[in-house]
Structure formats: structure tokens, C-alpha cells
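Lab notebook, bench 4. Still working through the backlog of constructs that have no structural model yet. Next entry is a single chain of 339 residues. Request: give me the C-alpha cells for it.
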Amino acid sequence: MKKSDNSRRSFLRNSFLLSAAAAVPATWSTAEGKNRSEFKGGALASPSEIESSLTGVMNEGSSAGKGLTNNYGYNQELCKHYTCYRSSSPVTVDAELEKEAWKSVPRSPRFVDMTTGNSAILDTRAAVQWDDQNLYVAYWIQEPNIAATLTKRDSLIWNDNDVEMFIGGEDCYYEFEINAFGTVYEVLWVWQDAYKHGSRFEIPELDLLTQKIEVLGGEFDGRKHPRGARWGFRDWDLKGLKTAVKVNGTSNKSEDLDAWWNVEIAIPWSGLKLLAGDRSLPPKPGDLWRMDFSRFELLKERGASINPGWSWNTHGIYDSHIPELFTYIHFSDKRAEDI
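Model written out:
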């Protein structure tokens, strides 16, 4: 390991430990009997977990951590399953996640390093529920230094700290990103082998000659998914999308200690028709969708930076765009508070 890596690791570890101490947090015990610190927004990693997670961060793209390998061959054993319960009533999208609507809804496990599977440095969790009109998504994001810069819609939000969501579709998938300012980036990705004359993708909103297009996959960007490349339509917007962000702290003020920020999203089923293909909208109880939930955190020190990705599912490689490794979302007609 390079000397600069040791220095960076020490800096990051000490920064987060000092942040925890300055917050004068409460403590709680895990099932293993370990004491940890807790902000209101979520639990801060223990020192050993920080060290373990940083080891993974410094070795992104390798088989560090739990011996994971490049997963373009996929590994369904890495994929978690989640039951998405019905909401009792329409959910108001305001990012007030202490409200009754989310109290009984199960949260995801703590996000892990996308490549290694090690516990992430900062606590991040997500939850999902649904009704006949919308899919509702919530994120609880621990953050001692809330920061954002981008304010224009469809800016390249991954250049800020963000949370992201992918929804798998038939021959396509949807990407959503949002930062602490509430700035949204969204793209519809269509596999090039499915983009054919006469397909459901032959519509004005997905015209290659008139729309803003990105290309993903192939030798040029290192994303060598076996299915090949896909077209990304950046002008495509999910109709009826609602989002909200709540910040507990002060954005872009590094001299003080922040606690967390929350995100809440409502996605109308009517906006997912292109993704659904032949699937029912809204889903029927027992239906299965694939979705991915992640967070990217830009960490800087002395002019150097790292950008670890933390996600609900382990991907085994630094790439969010693998629909085969998205979380299994099972739709239930039961309500969470009745379970």
C-alpha cells in the first residue's frame, strides 16, 4: 500500500471518529454485544468497521473484503429480497420521515460497500411501499458534513454526494439521482439490442436524432456487461415524479457538524408504462420487480479524492448498472402495520 493511501485512511478514520465524539451521541448494543454511536439519522460505524470499510474503499475494483470477484457473470446469492407492503393511505411527499406513514415500514439493512460487501462508513437505509397510484421510496442518510453544489435539473449529480435508485424494466431500466439540494438527474436506459424498428421504444421521446443521448457499455468505458451497450435518454422524464429533501444540518459548512438528510420520492405507476412492458401496473400482489438503491460519497483530502459507492446490494464491481444484481422487490397486498 502506498504511503499516500495510509495517510488518507488515517485522515478519514480520524475525521469520522472525531465527528462522532463531537456529536456526544447515545450508545446502543448490537446483537453481538458491540457498542456503537448513534446520530438521530442513523448509527455511525464502529472504529473496526470504519477500518474495514476503508480497506474496501482503497481497493475498489479488486477482490478485497469478502473475496468478491467481477460480477458481470452475476451472482444471485448476492441479491437481497424485500417485501414491499401496501401503504394505508396516500403518502405526502415532504421528507418528514418520522411521520406515521413510515413508522411500520421495514427499512433496508445498512448499505454496504458496492464492491466488497463491507459495512459502509456512514449509515444509509432505504424503504419502499406502494398503493394503486404510486411507488413510495424513502432514504435515511447519515452525514456529518452535508454538501452539494449542483442546482440545475439533470446536472451530473454523481459529482456531488447523492443517493440513487434504479428500476429494472423490460429491455430497459430507469436511473434516478438526487443531491442534498433536491436537484434531480434521471435517465432512461434502453439496451441497444432491443432498440429496433417497430418496438415500443420507437417513439419521439426516444428518438436518437433529436434527443440528448449517452452511450454506456463497451470497451471505451470499462462497463463490459455481456449484453453490450445501451442508449441513455437524458431528456426523458418520469411523468408525475415527486421528490422532497430534508436536511438536518447546514449545507456546505464544513466547520460545524451535521447529522443527516432524508429523501422521499413518489413514482406514479402511470409513469412506468414504458418500463413495465407486459407487466401489470400497478403491480399485483405477488409480482416481482428489480430495483437498486445506492449512495455515492465524495471524500477529499489534500487534493486527492475517493468516491466510494454504498448500496443495498453488493455488486462485486464498481458499477451500478447491472440489472441482474438489483434487489428483489416482492409486492404484497398486506399492510406493514398489520404484520
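Notes after review: Residues 3-338 form a domain with the Immunoglobulin-like fold (CATH 2.60.40.1190). Confidence is low (pLDDT under 50) at residues 1-67. Flag for follow-up if needed.
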